[in-house]
Amino acid sequence: MLFGFIASAIAGFMLTAVPSWTGQKGFAGIPLIALALVWIAARVLIMTSASWPLMLPTIVDLAFLPLLAVLVMIPLIRSRNRNTPLLGSSGRPLTVNPLITLAYGLLTTAAVMRVFGLSLFGMSYPTVIAVAAIFWTTSLILFVGVYSPILWRPRADGKPG
Description:
Layout: H1 2-22, H2 29-47, H3 55-79, H4 98-121, H5 125-152
């Protein structure tokens, strides 16, 4: 269920973002209907999975994202615009600040500590939670510190939003 929700959120973003990136009209008609039917079929097959061979719901569910990729690649390739998708929603180039790399490392460390702290490090449960919380909080502080100034300033490309 989580995969279907996340996949539909990705699809919603891509199906609305690609037309604005390429300057071409939005998605409609048979390709969009076919994509929606694959997503719906996967949900129905999963809900009734006891009635089907094990691989059928899996194959239909996993077909959704490659079909979405094909659908959005057509206008991206057709437009030959290689620069626009490289801008984020703030109108700035998509580059990663080294502090964000550190933040993701700390977040991953917090998750590993939370899951494996008791067995790998022999710490007590309260200590595991406290250490994981320190890593997570530090990660969040770095993330907010890097992205807040970007989000508070006007878009770099001068466009609204």
